[in-house]
Structure formats: structure tokens, C-alpha cells
Design a protein that fits this description.
Length: 334
């Protein structure tokens, strides 16, 4: 049963995170190279530009240059690092989209003018010549004002909502769930539920509540995950027994079964337990975020090789993606 808004056991959350939008943006597309352009596919973890429905993340310590005008619907943009809006560039977002700047994050412009604009639902939330640099924590949604008041720190008390909730499949097919809450009071625990069809749900674990009145970060590993597409949700339970559900997140089925990544000399060999069912993009990335090699392999691929003359000794990251939600990242010592 979803509890009413006047229950003491609610979470105090930022207004921007109360929209239905966040519950619908389920595919994470994260910046994986630092100091690169939004318009470059190599900037993004899915090997493509952010699209409708994505949860777009700029991690702490990363800068992305917004060098195009992009129109997107139903997206959740999290800026933990820096988003720099270039001249004559911006984002046109629909009413179901949210932009969140976290602590330590910033939104700014390279050439302050009236041509750098981020709008939500036709309302300008950020204008370069007016807003300059905005630092977090601040959030913009259809419920916040117009530039220069487009980003807000207003808080309201609501039934339990989650600041973030993601699911990522690892190279051994396990699925790791991560979620964050803010200002918990009277929270007992979270039941982790899994579904293969989106209708029948099974509780697969329980995670105890964290500290009161601070940001809490949680994780849960599903070591028994199916190779098929899987949906997850959280059932948050109060100490008085009332409960409500988080949004649902979904991970794609594995495109290639279990994946083995082994380095031999300066060559990285990647083997799939079954031929891939989709086109696979493989990237070899240095620890400073530079993409050293990128190769695309068609369906029915069973093995991939990277490296050779392109690398010297050291630690590198191998990143594989099918562009549809399946991805693997693994550090390799050469």
C-alpha cells in the first residue's frame, strides 16, 4: 500500500525528482571520456548520442562540451561533473524531463550569450548570458521557474521517492543494483524484487535502511540473474509496516552469453560463450579516458581481439556495448 503524504516516515527529496519522468528513463548513457564533445559517439557509454528515455550521466571529474542543439524527451540528466554549453548550442527537453546538478557539479557556458539555452517544456531554464555558471545541488523540471530562476533547491516532503536507481549487468552476467535516498526517517528496509515479464514479481533480497537525515547509497548484487531481459524494483518498508514501490529499471538480456576477457602479451582476447545476437562495439580506453581503439563487430561474432601495437604496458579498460543497453567494462593489465 502506498502511504499518504502526511506520514512521518517519508523521505525529504528535491522537487525535481518528484516527476514521473525519472521513473521512465531507464537506460543509462554515461560519459566515459573526459573533455570531449556531446556530439561524439565515443563520449558515451552506449556508443551513441543520448536519446529519448535515457538517464544521461556526466560523472564527477568529467567535463562534456555541449556543442550541438539537441531535442530530447523523457530524459533525466545528472551533472556530477561539468557540462559546458557552447555558443549556439543547447538542449530542448519536454515536460517529462529533469536536469539535476549534484554537489560538486556545474553547468556553465564557454561564451556567455543568449544563444546557449536549456529549456524544459518550452520554458527556458538556463540562458548563458543570464545564468553564467550554476553549481549544485540544484534541479530544473517543468515545476521550476524561468531563467534566472529555472534551477531550484526547493524541497518538499513526499511519499518515498528515490534520487536514483540503476541496474547494470556485469561481464559474468550478474546484475548490480545501486540506489540513493535523501533524508530518511522511520525507514525499516528495502525489499529487492525481480521480474522476467514485468507482471510477476519475486523478492530476491532485503537491504537494511541507512542513517537518518543524510544521503544514503545502497547496492545489491543479483548473482542469480537470468540471461534474458530482467526488470527490478524496490519495495521500501517503514518501521510501521507501510510500504511503497520505487520506479522499475530494466537490464537487457546478454547479447553474447558469458564473456571472457583475457590479456596475452599486448593482445586482449574477448570470447563469448555463444555468437552475439547484435552488433558489438569494442573500445580500448586508457585510464585518463582516451579511446585508443574502437572496433565494431557484426552479429554472430564469437571472438574479438584488441590491443597489439596500439598499447604499451599498463592498465587499460575494455568496454563492450551493443548500443541497446547491454554493456561490459573491465580493467586489464598488459
Amino acid at each position: 500500500m502506498i502511504r499518504s503524504m502526511n506520514k512521518k516516515s517519508s523521505l525529504l527529496l528535491l522537487l525535481a525528482f518528484t516527476t514521473v519522468t525519472i521513473a521512465q528513463a531507464t537506460t543509462m548513457n554515461k560519459a566515459i571520456t573526459n573533455g570531449t564533445n556531446w556530439s561524439s559517439t565515443s563520449t558515451w557509454s552506449l556508443g551513441r548520442l543520448p536519446a529519448n528515455g535515457d538517464s544521461i550521466v556526466i560523472p564527477a571529474g568529467y567535463t562534456v562540451w555541449l556543442d550541438i542543439n539537441a531535442t530530447l524527451n523523457n530524459v533525466y540528466l545528472t551533472i556530477a561533473g561539468t557540462l559546458e554549453v557552447d555558443k549556439n548550442s543547447g538542449l530542448t527537453l519536454d515536460n517529462n524531463s529533469v536536469v539535476g546538478i549534484l554537489n560538486g557539479g556545474s553547468l556553465s557556458t564557454t561564451h556567455p550569450s543568449s544563444t546557449e539555452i536549456i529549456s524544459i517544456g518550452g520554458v527556458n531554464k538556463y540562458v548563458g548570458s543570464v545564468d553564467g555558471t550554476i553549481t549544485g545541488p540544484k534541479y530544473a523540471s517543468s515545476a521550476t521557474g524561468t531563467s534566472p530562476s529555472g534551477f531550484s533547491t526547493t524541497t518538499v516532503t513526499l511519499p518515498v521517492t528515490f534520487v536514483s536507481f540503476t541496474a547494470v549487468r556485469s561481464d559474468n552476467e550478474d546484475v548490480t543494483l545501486d540506489w540513493t535516498t535523501v533524508s530518511e526517517t522511520s525507514n525499516s528496509h528495502f525489499d529487492v524484487e525481480r521480474s522476467l515479464d514485468g507482471a510477476q514479481w519475486t523478492t530476491i533480497g532485503t537491504v537494511a535502511a541507512g542513517a537518518v537525515n543524510v544521503e544514503n547509497n545502497y547496492n545489491f548484487n543479483d548473482a542469480m540473474a537470468s540471461a534474458n531481459e530482467i526488470s527490478y524494483r524496490l519495495r521500501q518498508v517503514d518501521i510501521d509496516g507501510n510500504a511503497q514501490y520505487s520506479r522499475t529499471v530494466t537490464v537487457a538480456g546478454t547479447a553474447a552469453g558469458k564473456t571472457t576477457i583475457v590479456a596475452t602479451g599486448k593482445t586482449i582476447n574477448i570470447t563469448f560463450t555463444r555468437p552475439t545476437s547484435a552488433t558489438i562495439t569494442a573500445r580500448l580506453i586508457s585510464l585518463n579516458g582516451q579511446v585508443l581503439q574502437q572496433e565494431t563487430f557484426g552479429p554472430a561474432t564469437s571472438t574479438i581481439s584488441l590491443g597489439e601495437s596500439r598499447v604499451s604496458g599498463g592498465i587499460y579498460v575494455v568496454y563492450l556495448s551493443d548500443g541497446k543497453g547491454w554493456s561490459i567494462a573491465k580493467k586489464i593489465l598488459l
